[in-house]
Specification:
The protein has about 500 residues and is an alpha+beta fold. It is about 40% helix and about 25% strand. Strand 10 (about 235-240) and strand 11 (about 245) form a beta hairpin.
Length: about 500
């Protein structure tokens, strides 16, 4: 009997290949729609996040530019509130206002308007200053000063002039803190300016005077030009009265834009991303940042691309998104206070302390003023770290920093040198001696330290100091001498401020 061989026909691979391609194309088509929608949403989110990050960082810079003016207003108002006879003694008033203007390049003028209508003002006029007093009847006396605040010309025949309208004067009379005015163009100086003003009151709360510091718009314009906001688009700062303080005047949110809340303000996404927010809770100005969509919205893959092109585009889009986010976060890091401050305590770090301390010493040398340099060290700080852990140790360091900062003046520089060691450069007033000034800071730091640590540990603050009365104005030499005095003194008694020697 013959056998028939069973022959198996090979299966046709072509239908399987077609089916695989069709399935792949369907999957690619479906995922392309979903991925495109996801990428578009992610891109819009990245644009919002990046723009608000840039806007918030710029607002922090603008607010920081106002702090010297606020500190100056508080200092002058406090001095007048304690001793109102300053208002009747132009020489003493000049001695009070002059040092505050020296070295503060952001201040254009300081004005004091007494309750009886008399005024005193020091105005920056390169290369020096102009000090004027105005009597109640409008009579003006003018003294021209050089850059070292020495009189070079006096004029008492200046004709009386009409007093300008000053909205900040009335606002400050009823306020208990520093108030900022809207931008206004001052014809006398031909510039747009803002004022920080505060009422000086007697111990009983009666109005004695109003103190105002004028800041030119150029300060904010330079800051805005160097900020990350203008690196990616345009920005403006506008007052509630519509006057532009800095930046482009036509930067604004479109009237028909759909807005949503973002960070501290509102944002609108269209062809451009617009973010508007108040500069801060106390500054009556609006910051608006507009970023071109081409800068923040990455390209999206086309639906008719092949799978290979789709994959390449997705990779490129992902890389662009990462780079855009990274580039937008980088400027915020550049404006961070980490470059100038100690991360734990918020005081100046060693580098910033050395830079600012040298500036103060050189200004004192030019003016013949006395400066004290002090070094502070925590007593028994190791016991706190070992007994309660580094968290309480960090609280102790922050408490000491807070005490030193509270007791220092607007021209003083306080920093953390490292570990539990702090230092201060103190500009001394005409009637203030070095020992008293240093002890004031040491006592303040000791009190805040005790409150932070409690009764569990026997802690304290020791100090060593030297001043410039011997003619030494080099900061490293003064710091070494103060530190040597403190180390030597602590061997005998802790919790004391010891005077050192330059030798």
């Amino acid at each position: 009997m013959s056998r028939r061989l069973a022959v198996r026909s090979p299966s046709d691979p072509l239908p399987w290949a077609f089916a695989s391609v069709i399935v792949a194309l369907v999957v690619i088509g479906l995922t392309t729609v979903g991925v495109r929608a996801s990428v578009t949403a992610d891109s819009a989110h990245a644009a919002i996040e990046g723009t608000t990050l840039v806007g918030d960082a710029t607002a922090v810079q603008l607010e920081g530019a106002t702090r010297p003016a606020e500190a100056t207003v508080r200092t002058v108002a406090g001095a007048i509130g304690v001793d109102r006879t300053l208002l009747t003694d132009p020489a003493r008033m000049l001695d009070e206002l002059g040092p505050l203007m020296d070295g503060q390049s952001t201040l254009a003028a300081i004005t004091v308007v007494a309750a009886d209508g008399t005024e005193a003002e020091i105005d920056r006029r390169e290369p020096g200053f102009v000090f004027r007093t105005i009597a109640a009847d409008g009579t003006v006396d003018v003294t021209v000063l050089d850059e070292s605040l020495e009189p070079v010309e006096t004029r008492d025949d200046v004709p009386a002039r009409a007093r300008p309208e000053r909205a900040w004067l009335e606002d400050a009379q009823w306020s208990t803190s520093v108030v900022w005015s809207d931008p206004a163009t001052v014809p006398e100086v031909g510039r747009t300016v803002v004022h920080a003003a505060m009422a000086a009151r007697s111990p009983r709360g009666d109005l004695v005077a109003v103190v105002a510091v004028r800041v030119d718009s150029e300060v904010f314009s330079r800051l805005l030009q160097a900020s990350p906001a203008t690196s990616y688009g345009e920005a403006s700062v506008v007052g509630e009265n519509g006057v532009v303080l800095a930046g482009a005047g036509d930067v604004a949110m479109a009237d028909d834009a759909a807005t949503e809340q973002a960070s501290a303000g509102t944002v609108a996404v269209g062809d451009v991303v617009t973010y508007a927010r108040p500069v801060s809770d106390t500054l009556p100005w609006t910051l608006t940042v507009v970023v071109d969509g081409d800068e923040v919205l990455p390209a999206v893959a086309s639906l008719d691309r092949t799978m290979l092109l789709y994959t390449v585009v997705i990779v490129v889009v992902t890389l662009i998104m990462v780079l855009v986010l990274w580039a937008l976060r980088r400027p915020a890091g550049e404006v961070s206070v980490r470059a100038r401050t100690d991360a734990l305590t918020g005081l100046s770090n060693r580098h910033h302390f050395e830079v600012r301390g040298n500036d103060v010493l050189q200004a004192a040398r030019r003016r013949g003023a006395t400066v004290a340099v002090a070094v502070f060290d925590l007593d028994n700080f190791k016991a706190v770290n070992d007994g309660a852990g580094h968290e309480l140790g960090d609280d102790a360091l922050r408490a000491v920093a807070d005490g030193l900062a509270r007791a220092s003046g607007p021209r003083d520089v306080v920093g953390r040198l490292g570990g539990d060691e702090f230092a201060a450069v103190l500009w001394l007033g005409a009637d203030e001696d070095s020992a008293t000034a240093v002890e004031r800071l040491r006592t303040s730091a000791h009190m805040t330290l005790e409150r932070a640590v409690g009764d569990r540990f026997d802690v304290g603050v020791s100090a060593g100091w030297v001043d410039t009365t011997a003619g030494e104005y080099r900061l490293p030499t003064l710091v070494r001498a103060a530190d040597a005095a403190m180390v030597s003194g602590k061997r005998t008694t802790k919790g004391v401020a010891y005077e050192g020697s330059h030798a």
